[in-house]
Amino acid sequence: MSTTGGTADPPPSSRIGSSRGDPLAALGSLPGVAESVEAVRKAVDRVYGHRIMRRRSNEITSEAALRGARGSAALSGADWALEEVRRRTDFSGEDEARVMGAALRLTAEAGQLLSIWRQSPLRVLARLHLVAAASQEDAVGRPRREGETAHEPLIELPLPGPAEVSGRLEGLSQLIIQGSSAPALVTAAIVHGELLALRPFVSHNGLVARAAERIVLVGSGLDPKSVCPAEVGHAERGRAAYLAAFEGYVSGTPEGMSAWIAHCATAVELGARESTAVCEALQRGAA
Questions:
Q1: Of 18, 82, 52, which Cα lies nearest the Cα of 280?
Q2: Is the separation of the CB atoms in 63 and 275 below 8 Å?
Q3: Longest Cα pair distance anywhere in the chain, in angstroms?
Q4: In whole angstroms, what is the distance from residue 33 CA to residue 98 CA?
Q5: What's the whole-model pTM score?
Q6: Which residue, among 48, 40, 38, has the nearest Cα to 226 in the 3D structure?
Q7: What is the pLDDT of residues 37-92, one digit of tens each?
Q8: Is residue 164 predicted with pLDDT exceeding 50?
Q9: Mind spelling out the 3-state secondary structure of the chain?
Q10: Distance separating alpha carbons of residues 281 and 272, to the nearest angstrom
Q11: Crossing angle, helix 254-284 and helix 239-251, to 10 degrees?
């Protein structure tokens, strides 16, 4: 359970280079980021160049969605075997089942929100939380209010207050609406990291942050068919590596930001590798 009372720093993206113009572009010039971007491009190209993608891309997309949801849920405490996710039809009841159900719903919903994201990212985030929570309670689909806390089992950093959350969400929204020359990987990493740092909702913040990362990667055209699920890679690298990289984001230092972007890049690469393996299995007739 996260606690309130800490004072979070300004958005890390605003502390790297000038805050005017295109602040995300400055992050793209950090040491190692260009190499991460190039590695991701090659991994994505490898999947899209596979002969199976020309004939059965819908199957690859569906499988990537399932595996991505499983990976995101694992980071939020529901680390189920893929076959259990595939077999299960009822995701009500115990906590882990509800987390898995939320992850599956978010993955399905994310693809429906691409056209809205660039015009109204805050509206999309509210919708993602509503879908994840699957509840009509007052706290669903809106940022936290004074006195409300956020349950996020993975993150134990001090929780920014509602006023700061509002200001930083607005700043993030403006960055997205204005657009950036920064690579899609950089934008996706910043969106993911900032939402994880803010934990703007009372619940499901990690799931929403990873769904938003997916939206950026798909909507940017880097992964238009959504076959390179970063969630798979985040889960494969494990919770400890995820948290260590996230601490770099929160630090706001050039080294920390580079480490977080590199971590997100590796996650996309691993997601691409997973889908490449699925393509190979389909080609062999094994799936």
A1: 52
A2: yes
A3: 56
A4: 36
A5: 0.91
A6: 48
A7: 999 999 999 999 999 999 999 999 999 999 999 999 999 999 999 999 999 999 98
A8: yes
A9: CCCECCCCCCCHHHHCCCCCCCHHHHHHCCCCHHHHHHHHHHHHHHHHCCHHHHHHHHHHHHHHHHHHHHHHHHHCCCCCCHHHHHHCCCCCCCHHHHHHHHHHHHHHHHCCCHHHHCCCHHHHHHHHHHHHHCCCCCCCCCCCCCCCCCCCCCCCCCECCHHHHHHHHHHHHHHHHHCCCCCHHHHHHHHHHHHHHHCCCCCCHHHHHHHHHHHHHHHCCCCCCCCCCHHHHHHHHCHHHHHHHHHHHHHCCHHHHHHHHHHHHHHHHHHHHHHHHHHHHHHHCCC
A10: 14
A11: 140
113 vs 101: CA distance, rounded Å = 19
Q: Is the pLDDT of residue 21 over 90?
A: no
Written as one letter, the residue type at 30 is L
Instruction: Give the whole-angstrom CA distance, residue 199 versus residue 143.
Output: 9
